[in-house]
Amino acid sequence: MKLFGALRKSAVRQPESGGNRDHRVGVDWCVEIAVQVWRLRRSLAQGVGDAPTRRVESARRWLEELWESLGEAGIEVRDLTGKPYDVGMTVKVVAWEAVAGLKREVVLRTVKPAVLIGGRVVQMAEVIVGICDGEVRAAKEEGDATDND
């Protein structure tokens, strides 16, 4: 789709003096479209029962074409669900959850994906990170011991 190519060019172009607001509006629009396509794609991937209708299958096809167009335009959406978490990651952790049996910290859920335009991060991912159940107990016990001093 030529629309996304034009948007990408305008979004990643360095703004001229005084044009920063227009530049940011273009980037914000691209981010919003990318996030909504990601949400719809994720929702459709979860299924609609055993026998999806023709209409749903058509919607899936159109969505996949739109998703590919975003990629061709240099707009990348990153879902970090299931990826190992590292303190150095450029993400906003919105919650931590204790999960029994985890060997290391892992992204349990992507609340909002990272969006990159032309390789530049324009929206940081928001995630929920799973931590080992023992880490929660150790941190709580350490906090309790400190409170008693």
How would you explain this protein's 3D organization?
The protein is of the alpha+beta class and about 150 residues long. It has one domain. Helices cover about 50% and strands about 25% of the residues. The chain has four helices and six strands; from the N terminus they run αααββββββα. The chain has helices at about 1-10, 20-45, 55-70, 135-149; strands at about 75-80, 90-100, 105-110, 115, 120-125, 125-130. The strands form two sheets. It has a three-stranded antiparallel beta sheet with strand order 1-4-5. A three-stranded mixed beta sheet has the order 2-6-3. The radius of gyration is 20 Å and the shape is flat.
Tell me briefly what this model is.
This protein has 149 residues and is an alpha+beta fold. 48% of the residues lie in helices and 24% in strands.
How are the SSEs ordered, and which strands pair?
Layout: H1 2-12, H2 20-45, H3 54-72, E1 75-78, E2 91-99, E3 106-112, E4 114-117, E5 120-123, E6 125-132, H4 133-148
Parallel strand pairs: 2-6
Antiparallel strand pairs: 1-4, 3-6, 4-5
